[in-house]
Amino acid sequence: MVKKIIFIEDEEDVRNAVKYILEAENYEFYGAVSGPEGIAKITKYNIDLLLLDIMMPGMDGFEVCRAIKSEPSIDLPIIFISAKTDATDIARGFALGADDYIIKPFDPNDLVTRVRRVLDKYDRRQNNYPPV
């Protein structure tokens, strides 16, 4: 089954680059420019993985993560993709429930590897398979 991934990112160039990378790996890609738009698409399209920028106008990525994790009907892994490199920001992302944190600029192969790893880990947890 094709995995559905959404990237909430206000910068179109970055969103399009990730779209290109992930579609080349046969993922179904959805983009959103804001937190509220992304949250609506998560439930509408039954998304499997959320990629999330932090620095966005209005609702920032930390607020989006908090909203997603507090909603019992939504259970999906989250990977932050951010230019924020400070250890406190990274720690805050993990404390809010992120499964990974990728620093911009990133290597496309690293992105794909991390996406696969997080999706595999999540699938194993959902299906109660032992870790590899």
Question: Gist?
Answer:
45% of the residues lie in helices and 17% in strands. With 132 residues, the chain is of the alpha/beta class.
Main sheet: strand order: 2-1-3-4-5
- Percent range for β-strand residues: 15-25%
Largest sheet: 5 strands, parallel
N-end to C-end Cα span = 21 Å
| CATH class (first level) name | Alpha Beta
Number of domains: 1
Structural class: alpha/beta
What is the H level of CATH, i.e. the homologous superfamily? Answer: Response regulator
Helical run tally: 5
SSE sequence, one letter per element: EHEHEHEHEH
Q: If classified by CATH, what would the architecture be? A: 3-Layer(aba) Sandwich
Uncertain regions spanning at least 5 consecutive residues: none
- Mean of residue pLDDT? 94
The name of the CATH topology is: Rossmann fold
List keywords for this structure.
132 residues, alpha/beta, Rossmann fold, 5-stranded parallel beta sheet, 5 strands, 17% strand
Walk me through what this model shows.
The chain is of the alpha/beta class. The chain has one domain (4-126): 3-Layer(aba) Sandwich (Rossmann fold). It has helices spanning 12-24, 35-44, 61-69, 87-95, 108-126, and strands at 4-8, 28-32, 49-52, 78-82, 100-103. The two termini are 21 Å apart. The model has no long low-confidence stretch (mean pLDDT 94).
